[in-house]
Amino acid sequence: MRLTSVLATVFVAVVLQAAFSRYTVGGTITFDLVLVGVAYAALQWGAAAGMVAGTLGGLIQDLLGGGIIGVGGLAKTLVGYLAGTVGAQFVLARPHVRTAIVAVASLLHRIVVLLLVAVIDQRWSGLPWVAMLIETGINAGAAFIAFQVTDALPGVVERGRASRRSGFSRRQW
User: Fold this and answer.
1) CA–CA distance from 83 to each of 10, 100, 108, 131, 169 (Å)?
2) Confidence check: pLDDT of 130 > 70
3) Are 52 and 6 spatial neighbours (Cβ–Cβ below 8 Å)?
């Protein structure tokens, strides 16, 4: 069940990233919904799930996005492992705490990608702090929405079932 959940999370994240990628601003201000999916999987199901999600999501994103294949996969695998490890060490029940973990993961991911590209290409392009902070804010907002929705979903389903049961019991046929 867990592998299926991780694969479904990666699939949804890749589809959403592809659907919303045209809304980037000039190619400098972006968002990374695949990273949000990786961090979500890591925080929900642990470090191993984060590594699987990071590897699959990062490689798929590298293949679809162009550039150096494997850089995003390696960076997302590392971030997925670290987020899963932090999630296992601490009780992260509140959505805003998990959102902060995603924000830190977003910054760490961007720095790792920049460092890997600098090592491979043998040139340093610098750190685009403003774009990194905007991307972190968008990723954190998307993660907050994802955590709120998944936390509220079981209660909504249960309330729907309860209202249907009570509705049938009150009717007089």
Assistant:
1) 16, 11, 11, 22, 47
2) yes
3) yes
